[in-house]
Each structure stands twice: as C-alpha cells, then as structure tokens.
Amino acid sequence: MSKTYETVIGLEVHVELATKTKIFCGCSTAFGGAPNSHTCPVCTGMPGSLPVLNKQVVEYAMAVGLATNCTITQYCKFDRKNYFYPDNPQNYQISQLYLPICRSGGVEIETAAGKKTIGIHEIHMEEDAGKLVHDEWEDVSIVDYNRSGVPLIEIVSEPDMRSAEEVIAYLEKLRLIIQYLGASDCKLNEGSMRADVNLSVREAGAAEFGTRTEMKNLNSFKAIARAIEGERARQIELIEEGKKVIQETRRWDDNKESSHAMRSKEDAQDYRYFPEPDLVPVVISDEWIERVKARQPEMRDEKLIRYQDEFGLPKYDAEILTGDKSFADLFEAAAAICGKPKKVSNWIMTETIRLLKENEMDPDQIRFSPEHLAKLVDLADAGSVTNTVAKEVFEKVFKEDIDPEAYVKEKGLLTVNDEGALRETVAKVIAENPQSVEDYHNGKEKAIGFLVGQTMKAMKGKANPALVNQILKELL
Question: What is the distance between the alpha carbons of residues 455 and 433, in angstroms, rounded to a whole number?
Fold first, then answer.
C-alpha cells in the first residue's frame, strides 16, 4: 500500500518598502539608475560612517504588523548578522533577531478547501544587500550597491501551509494588504516582493516535521507553485528510496523546472548575531501606535462588502475592482463624480482591462483621470454618443487622457438625432438594397439588421440606433 504524504510549508517574504530614501542613509531607493549611483559612505560600508534610522521604515513596519494582527514590540532593537559576501559591503547586515518589531500575528486566507488562518511568527526590519552581476563574457562578477541599504521587512510565517494553493492565497493576501497600505508596490518581477519557501514532507498523521529545505530565486506566483510541486516530489522520492533529505538552501531554476543545492542550511549561531552597537533601541509609545492605527486605510475585505452594500455591485465586480488598489481608487473617484457606480464598474471591467492586456500594462500604470472616465460614462449614458463611438473615444482617453466632451465636439462625433437627416439616409439605403427589402417583406426579420448596419455605416456610426430602427420599420 502506498503511503500518503503531507507537505508542510512556511514562507519568509521579503518586501522592499516604498520609502524615498534608504533605511540608514539619505540615498535614493528608486529602481534602476546607473550602477552605484545611489550610494554614499554609509550604504557602501565605509569605515567610520554611521547609520541613522529612517522613521518611515518603522511606521511602515508597524502598519503592516497592525494589518496582519501582530503585537507591536514596544522596545525593539537591531542586531548585526555577520556574513562575508561581496554584495554585502560592511561584511554584516543590520537586521533584527532578538526583538523584532512585530510578533504573533496571522491572516485569514480562502481556498477551495474553505477559510484558514495562517500564523505570522514575526516581522522584522532589515537592510537589503547589493546586487551581484555575473558577466559571462568577461568571466567576472561585478557588484552594484544601489540596492544596498534599501529598507526591507521580512515576514516570517508559521509552518501552517499545506499546498501550493494555500501559499499563493497567503501571498496574494499579503500583497493586497501591503499595497493598500502604500508600504510597497510588491512587484515580484522587480524584486520588491520576494518569497523563500521552506518545505518538508512527512507521512500523513505523523507528529514530527520532516527535514526542511529552503528554496530561493522565486520571482512569480507560477514559479512558486512549480517549485513547491517539484520539491515535494523530490523529497518524497528520496524518502521512498530510503535516503535522507538534507537540510540545505536550494536554488529554483524555472526554465529547467528543477532545483539544485546552493549551500547547506545555516543556523542562527553561524551568523554570530550580536546587538547592533551603532543604533539605539527603538522605543514605541502607545500614542505612536494609535497614530499609525488611525491612518490605516479601508482594507480589501471591508471594501468588498461595502461595494456590494453601498453601490449594489455584484460580488464578481466587487472582487475584481478591490483586487487591485489602482482599480479601487479609480472606481471610487469616478463613481463619486458621475454617481453611476455600475456603469463605471462596467467600463473598468471590460474596456480598461482589455486595453491593459493589449498593451501589456499593470493597473498601476493607468494614466487617465477619474474625471475623464466619469465624463465618458455620462456621454454614453445620455446617448450623446453611440456605443461604438464611446469605445473609440475611450481608447483615446486611455492612451492620452483627453477630455472626452471636448474631443467629441471637436471631431463632430455626437449622435445624430436629427430625424430629417436620418430619414433621407434610410430612404437611400432602402432604395439601394431591394433584395433585403424583399426578404424583410417575405418575413425574414434578420434583413432589417443588415439595413440598420448599412444606415449606421452611411452615418459613420453616429446615428441613434433606436431611431434608425423606428424609421426603417415605418418606411418599410
């Protein structure tokens, strides 16, 4: 009888915070930039330079902690984690081991199996390392310190996840919480959110955990899901063959869909942690926590309910609109201007999403204003422009953020409701299409659709379709 195995997964999620400057110096945190141009003596680890803590980092960490139901450590400090690696200029990293800023939280996730709470062991603040660039041609590695000292929080979960589906649901939940807080854009492809997966397998029903491995280099949800499936299969195979799983760090290669060992897994003592001597402890008062709490925005779960209750939107619409903060902000602002929430929702859910896909853009790259979307909704709703024209105008709004009202007037795109002009065109279309007229008189209702189409074509799509239909029936 074959054994059944259970996968046990815990995550370490690193999130780059959206501060303008680094954690311990005034250098820019902007993504990109010529190598080593966002640097100074502090973030390149020059002797005698001293770190100064960026207050905004503490506030973002507290905000994420509060939103994930953690307890804030009111007396917290930094520690020095010693390791020697070329992208780590001081030969140590300033992190938090003994007194991390947030502890014992959790978030609720929902999968096909139902709802479940994933525990958060701790969240700590730390600085990022630089970036090694391997030049195959010259056979050298060069280092860019722009990222060195960029502020991170590391969110360490409990080993509460049992499948790739739960892992993705947890990451999606964290990403939305952090984006809503404005603490990070959480773009996996730019490295502003990175997840390391700790995974072990055990026989179903066993009390002890198996030996875990840690997988790095995961920069998309799809890669994470594939890595989990791949590593689970690899460990089960080893156990079935009577071999031992070795505790180690592995690097996932998404192209080959396999992982390989990088180094045997270190324990905390390998890093010779000790309290950071150059930084004073951070003392967080009750008032400071209250101030951060008072600034917390409305979160996705609350918006989801409100969009259905207040705006009468279907659950499906509400889920898509709240699934990205850019959509939610655009929707609320445009709906407040024109007072037509369902119609605004329709334009975002159909045309906006279609154009984003066609142009391979993310929702946070939307450039048009809610005012212009609201004006377009009003024009289409009043029948001032036909649906076809409205869609064409919207493409211009999407690309160039034009004022739809002014554009429609300037280009003469307003719907023609002038009965005289329409009658003339309809009569001409009837005269030119005797076969369709005969088909209609012989009971073929579809023939009228063709005649409506010809009339709309003659009117360059600007005729009122209802009026065209009415006149056609009358004249026929």
Answer: 11
DSSP state letters, 270-297? GG--EE-TTSPPEE--HHHHHHHHHTPP
Q: Do 17 and 184 contact (CB within 8 A), yes or no? A: yes
3-state SS class at 471: helix
The CA-CA-CA angle for residues 162, 166, 168, to 5°, reads 135
Show the tokens assigned to 396.
């211009």
The CA distance from 269 to 113, in Å, is: 39
CA gyration radius, the chain:
30
Phi then psi dihedrals of residue 257, to 5 deg = 50, 45
Packing angle, helices 465-475 and 419-432, rounded to 10: 60
The residue-averaged pLDDT of 109-124 equals 91
Other Cβ atoms within 10 Å of 159 Cβ, number: 17
The pLDDT of residue 445 is: 67
Q: Which helix (H) or strand (E) holds 197?
A: strand 193-203
Q: What is the dihedral of CA 77, 130, 213, 154, to 10 degrees?
A: 40
Going through 217-321 in order, the beta strands assigned E by DSSP cover 248-253, 258-264, 274-275, 282-283
- Give which of 52, 70, 51, 22 is closest to 292, Cα–Cα: 70
Burial of 212 from C-beta contacts in 10 A (0-12 / 13-18 / 19+): buried
Q: Which two tokens stand for residue 11?
A: 């995550």
The string over 81-118, giving b where at least 16 C-beta atoms fall within 10 Å of a residue's C-beta and e elsewhere, is beeeeebbbbebbbbbbebbbbbebbbebeeeeeebeb
3-state helix, strand, coil in the chain (%, to 5): 45, 20, 35
- 29 backbone dihedrals φ, ψ, rounded to 5°: -100, 10
Domains of the chain in start order, with CATH, are: 5-288 (no CATH), 298-410 (no CATH), 419-475 (1.10.10.410)
User: Within a 10 A sphere around the Cβ of 146, how many other Cβ atoms?
Assistant: 24
Q: Which of 43-52, 215-224, 410-419 has the highest mean pLDDT?
A: 43-52
Question: How far apart (Å, rounded) are the C-alpha atoms in residues 252 and 196?
Answer: 10
Q: How far apart are CA 423 and CA 440, in angstroms?
A: 18
User: Which one-letter amino acid corresponds to residue 424?
Assistant: E
Indicate if the pLDDT at residue 78 is higher than 70: yes
Closest CA to 367 of 332, 395, 341, 343: 395
Q: Summarize pLDDT for 412-423 with one digit per residue, the tens.
A: 666 655 565 666
